[in-house]
Amino acid sequence: MTGRITIDLFVTLDGVAQAPGGPEEDTSGGFPWGGWQAPFEDPVIGQRIGDGIRGLDALLLGRRTYDIFAAYWPHHADGDMGFIGRKFNEIPKYVASRGNPSLEWRGSSLLGTDLAAEAARLREQHQDIHVIGSVDLVQTLLAEELYDELVLWTYPIVLGEGKKVFPNGAAPLRLSLVGEPVPGPTGVVELRYAPAGRPTTGDMT
């Protein structure tokens, strides 16, 4: 059975996915809103996120997200969120980078330059591959349809600036909703999409 590539993103209503976890996570571009996700403690969405992490067997990450994860999760395998650290520490981590970084986190390896070929190889080796964060990598995966599912946890907040999942100039694409939206009590909504080809147009008159 061929494995699946799932993209997981925390996004605002205006599509910003930069630095949801903390103030110093990603300050590039002078982004002042790092940690915008933190005020939304949502047990329903938290359970959904945790269930997805428990099932994955490989991570596919962009360089910046890899560096953030590698600096944090190897040292946080205890406590309420320790299952995330333990899972991330034990599974393979694949990194997409234009450079030649030193990947010291155990189980990490650098992908080749042919992303389509690498995605096919990962699908042969793993069943449940997840891309978390990694907005620049995600935009390439979306443009080339190198994914099976896009999961957006959409938060009821507008920031007006920051890295967007779909910035101006993003590749046109059409998405198909997979299953019912899952709302949480804080207003966060989980939306799961599959690729559905290119957009089409019509005449509403």
Automatic annotation (TrEMBL):
SUPFAM superfamilies: Dihydrofolate reductase-like (SSF53597)
Domain of life: Bacteria
Domain Bacterial bifunctional deaminase-reductase C-terminal: from-to ranges: 5-178
PANTHER family xrefs: BIFUNCTIONAL DEAMINASE-REDUCTASE DOMAIN PROTEIN, DIHYDROFOLATE REDUCTASE FAMILY PROTEIN (AFU_ORTHOLOGUE AFUA_8G06820)
Protein name: Dihydrofolate reductase family protein
